[in-house]
Specification:
- The chain is α+β, with helices and mostly antiparallel strands and 366 residues long.
- The protein folds into 2 domains: 112 residues, Phosphorylase Kinase, domain 1 (2-Layer Sandwich); 216 residues, Aminoglycoside phosphotransferase (APH), C-terminal lobe (Aminoglycoside 3'-phosphotransferase, Chain: A, domain 2).
- The protein is 40% helix and 12% strand.
- The longest helix has 26 residues.
């Protein structure tokens, strides 16, 4: 669900035009077109879409732009890591991980009242959050083979993230000072420390999940890798049926690749089963996906059921926060659905399934 445009559009256009003129003086004075927001995705931060046009020096030139505004009122996460995320995206632009190029940032907040980053807007389409891509939209209209291509192409792009060599890409700014080393232990306790912020401190299901996660924490024998964090279909830009770029790095951290794969699987499950919808017939199933991803990384996936419970736990906290933000801003979902109620029910269901799996010794998926 997108954050609604609550800024004066004419003032915003003037600010962006001024910033562009100062940033790219050799281009001359730009004309900035109408401001809009993404139609079907994005609540973690404010995204502004516009076109900038220069035409007085040579041929007419139009540059599609996306402006990511640092979160203020619509803050899904307790930390203020906006600068880290923009820095990461700029760093990734120099690798084979496909991301939108950042043209520049305004970190002071003097122009729009909050910091912002201006990026090139990559042409393409993104699977919809609302309505779910399992229900309708361009992905649902594709033949089954093309749906599988979108799903598997997303895995291939995600593997590029996990294959980045930590010895050649300096990600130290993501490694926050903590008593815990980077990995699942640190991530779990960071979420646990902010249950009140998310508004889930009184949920019996959340409490049970946290106890389970602490009791079954697996070893992570490999050096931590960069994690995309919000690894899901709705954060992938596709050209036709081919994934071409990854969006949204607000949840980026360091850890085991299983973390991202579990989120990829769980968020898709929530978008279908969690919303009472049949899953798209062309999307590969869990076992096929896990096997394929193991091939992409060159090793079997370890303890994946654990990471799926962790994904469901995190999703439930974020859904709780999202539900509160929606209520506080008067935003109503078209289907009157409570993301928190549905995510709590699915977390409860997954805990039962995983408990049974653990009892049978099935914590490792190969």
């Amino acid at each position: 669900m997108p954050v609604l445009l609550r800024r004066d559009p004419d003032l915003t256009r003037a600010v962006i035009a001024r910033w562009l003129a100062e940033r790219f003086p050799e281009e001359g004075t730009p004309v900035v077109g109408p401001i809009s927001t993404p139609a079907h995705t994005g609540f973690s931060g404010e995204i502004l879409l516009c076109d900038a046009e220069w035409d007085h020096r040579g041929p007419r030139r139009v540059r599609p732009l996306a402006i990511r505004v640092a979160p203020t009122a619509h803050r899904l996460f307790p930390g203020d890591d906006w600068e880290h995320h923009t820095r990461l995206q700029a760093l990734l632009a120099g690798t084979d991980v496909p991301v939108a190029k950042i043209l520049g940032t305004e970190p002071t907040g003097e122009l729009l009242g909050v910091p912002f980053a201006v990026m090139e807007r990559i042409p393409g389409q993104v699977p919809s959050d609302l309505p779910s891509y399992h229900h309708s939209g361009w992905l649902a209209r594709l033949p089954a083979s093309a749906q599988a291509e979108v799903w598997n192409g997303g895995l291939e792009l995600m593997a590029k993230v996990h294959r980045l060599d930590p010895d050649t890409v300096d990600l130290s700014f993501l490694d926050k000072t903590s008593r815990e080393p980077a990995g699942i232990g640190r991530q779990l306790e960071e979420y646990a420390a902010h249950l009140t912020f998310y508004g889930a401190q009184d949920s019996p299901v959340v409490t049970r999940a946290l106890h389970w996660l602490r009791s079954h924490r697996p070893p992570e024998p490999d050096a931590p890798r960069l994690l995309w964090g919000d690894a899901r279909l709705a954060n992938i830009i596709c050209a036709g049926q081919t994934p071409v770029a990854l969006l949204d790095w607000e949840m980026a951290t360091l850890g085991a690749p299983e973390n991202d794969l579990a989120w990829y699987l769980y968020t898709d499950r929530f978008m279908s089963e969690g919303r009472g919808l049949p899953r798209l017939a062309g999307l590969p199933g869990r076992q096929e996906t896990v096997s394929r991803y193991g091939s992409l990384l060159g090793r079997a996936m370890r303890h994946l059921p654990y990471y799926e419970v962790f994904a469901a736990f995190r999703f439930c906290l974020i859904a709780s926060r999202l539900t509160r933000l929606m209520a506080g801003t008067g935003i109503q979902r078209p289907d009157n659905e409570s993301p928190y109620a549905r995510s709590t029910a699915l977390l409860d269901r997954l805990l039962g399934e995983t408990d049974a799996c653990v009892r049978q010794g099935g914590t490792t998926v190969t």
